[in-house]
Amino acid sequence: MVLILILLCFLLGSSSCHSFSRPPFISKVTVQSSPADKGFTTNPSLYSRKDLEALGGLHVRGNNQYATANFQLSETASVLVLAQGEGASYDITPSLIESFQNDCLEVFFDLKNDKNKSFDFGGDDRQYRIQWHFNTVDGQNFNLEGTEIQQSDPSPTQYLIEMKYPWKTLGYVFPEPGKEIGLDFDVIDNDSNTREAQLSWHSTSNFLWRDPSGYGTLILRERLSDPGPSFAECLKVKAPPTIDGLKEALWDQTPSYPFQHVILGSIDNASDLSANFRALWDEENLYLLVEITDDIKKYASFLFDEGRIEDEQGNTVWQMEIEKTVHAGGALKNRKQEDTLILTPGRYTLIYQSDESHSAGAWDDQPPLHPYTGIEIYRLPNPGK
After folding, report:
1. pLDDT higher than 50, residue 233
2. How many whole angstroms separate alpha carbon 358 and alpha carbon 179?
3. Distance CA 163, CA 167 (A)
4. Is residue 252 predicted with pLDDT exceeding 90?
5. Which pTM was predicted?
6. Residue ranges of domains in the chain, CATH in brackets
7. Residues 110, 183 contacting (CB under 8 angstroms)
8. Do residues 5 and 20 lie in contact, with contact meaning Cβ atoms separated by under 8 Å?
9. What's the pLDDT band for 366 if we cut at 50, 70, 90?
10. What are the CA-CA distances from residue 89 to residues 92, 137, 346, 368, 382 (Å)?
C-alpha cells in the first residue's frame, strides 16, 4: 500500500498525485466452506466471540488475496458482524496519506518575481500547504520561523485561513511601496476520500509546485489603485491584524480577489468550491486572508482491505467503512468494525479483499489484539425465545 502511494507520487509529482487507486487482484482464492457449510476458514475456536454462536466467517491469510465464503439463515435473525483490516485516515496515521489528499490551501511565492519555468528549490520560491481541520503545514522550500497561521469555520460550508509571514523569514524582499512579488494560491477539494478538484487564483496549470511562470503578482501599496487582472494589491497598515483565524474589520479595507481557474477535476458551482484572498503588509510582515466555501469539508480516509456481505441477489447488505472502525490493537492502522444487523432467511456470501501489505500471515507491523484479517458472523440471542 505504501509502495503504491510512493510510486504514484514519483510518477505524477508531489502535488499532482491524482486519486488513490487500489492494486488489482493479484490472486483469487475461493475459500471452501466447512463440512457444516458455515464457511469457516479456520477453526471456530480461534474466533474472538466465544460467548456467541458462530454462523460463519472468513479469515484471509496473506496479501493480495480475494476470498469468498457462505452462510445460511433459516429464519430472520439478529447477527453481529466483526471485521478487521488495515486502514488509515489523516488523524490516525498521517504518514500513510499524502496531505494533498485532504481539503487544503496551498500558498506559493516567487519572491524575486522572475517567473521562471522551474521551481527554485534552494532559492526564492516557496510552497506552503495548509490543511483544513489540522492546521498543519508542509510543502517545499518553506520556513516557519515567526510565521503564524490560524483558521476557523464560520459555517458548515466555509473555512477561513489567516496568515502572517515575516519578511525576514521569506527573504529576498525589501518591503516598500511599489514592490512586486510573485504570488499564487490554490485550494484542493476532497468530497469523498481523495483530491477531486483544484481551484487557483491566477495560474491555469496544476503544476504550481514546479512551475512559477504562471503565478500572479502582488504589489505592495500605501494607497489603492487599479492594478489590472494579473495583479493584486496589498495595502499597508499601521496596526496589524490579529492572527486568530477570524475576519476583523481591518480586512475590509483591502480588495478581495477571487480564485478564477479550475486546474484539476470539475467544480459544479460556487457552493461546491470557491475562494478569495486579501493581502495587507507592514515593514515586518506580510498578512494574507483566504476565505473558502466548500460544501463538503473532509480529509482523506481509506480502508486498504475491503469486506462486504451480499445476499442471494448480489445486493450488498453490509460493508466495511473506515468511518465506522475503531482501533483493533497493535499498530494504529489495525482497524475493526462491529455492527448489528437484522438478516432475513437466505444464503449470504462473505467477500474479502486484502491489499499488498499487513495481513494475517504477512504482518509488516504489530498485529491486532485478535490477529486475523477478515470477517466473522455471530447469531445474537433472541430475547423472545
Report:
1. yes
2. 54
3. 13
4. yes
5. 0.74
6. 27-91+300-379 (2.60.120), 98-294 (2.60.40.1190)
7. yes
8. yes
9. very high
10. 5, 17, 35, 17, 36
